[in-house]
């Protein structure tokens, strides 16, 4: 391979997963370049979590293959798991450990020498603004704190590629800024971050490479500017790619919805207010 063509961080071929007769991921191909900040975006149910779960070895595909920095996820799982960090959706943690104990324990599982694991844990807790809660049990952590301790756990072994499923969901703006700073520093060192999100503004401001998914397929992927094309924002390009205009128009059929009783007058099932549109507190009895 030419020196100016670095190996893909993630190489996906014909990846497919069905649940019953529904294809959650419908045979996707994807090459994620190394050293990028990558956003996987798509509407609810697009298949983002299913894709990330298969890429990280948490869910077995029906067919297709995934390589991470040249290692097959299903044939070479140990090599892959040593190279990746994962913050999955609905992260399960050891709830009865404190944040610091959790990181030190995971460090031991990863084979990191105790002193080094403690050093890294202390630094991560500090940078992620969790030092004050390091002795608190994880079960007592808030949603945002859980995301941050999950991120610390995913970074502890200094992985080459980090996968984050909705890392900013439930996180306040200050913590989001902290997480962002950590991730930017991490990608500046040449590592790759792949994260899923619905928040286009966030993806646009953080990512230099995006993949847009809808109904189990990749609709567009590549450098941010290319995917955005002539659209003024990624948000607008996204709406066009996933056909959201049609779905928005479908809302027109909710002609009864308006928060008032007046629209119920001729249905025969309403409040019997008749032509009087004045709201009545007695429920029309
Ligand atoms: N374990 C499962 N059993 C049955 N159907 C599933 C399962 N997991 C996912 N699906 C279905 O697969 C489709 C893709 O789901 P997935 O969670 O991957 O989407 P997503 O893009 O992550 O959505 P969201 O943004 O809402 O989290 C959905 O229609 C979902 O209902």
TrEMBL record:
GO terms for molecular function: ATP binding. InterPro entries: AAA+_ATPase, ABC_transporter-like_ATP-bd, ABC_transporter_ATP-binding, P-loop_NTPase. Residues 10-240 form the ABC transporter domain. SUPFAM superfamilies: P-loop containing nucleoside triphosphate hydrolases. It is found in: Cell membrane. It is a peripheral membrane protein. Residues 258-285 are annotated as: Disordered. Residues 262-276 have a biased composition (Low complexity). CDD domains: ABC_DR_subfamily_A. It holds the Pfam family ABC_tran. Keywords: Antibiotic resistance, ATP-binding, Nucleotide-binding, Transport. It comes from the Bacteria. The keyword Transport applies. PANTHER family: ABC TRANSPORTER ATP-BINDING PROTEIN, DOXORUBICIN RESISTANCE ATP-BINDING PROTEIN DRRA. This is ABC transporter ATP-binding protein. It comes from Streptomyces hazeniae. The lineage of its organism: Bacteria, Bacillati, Actinomycetota, Actinomycetes, Kitasatosporales.
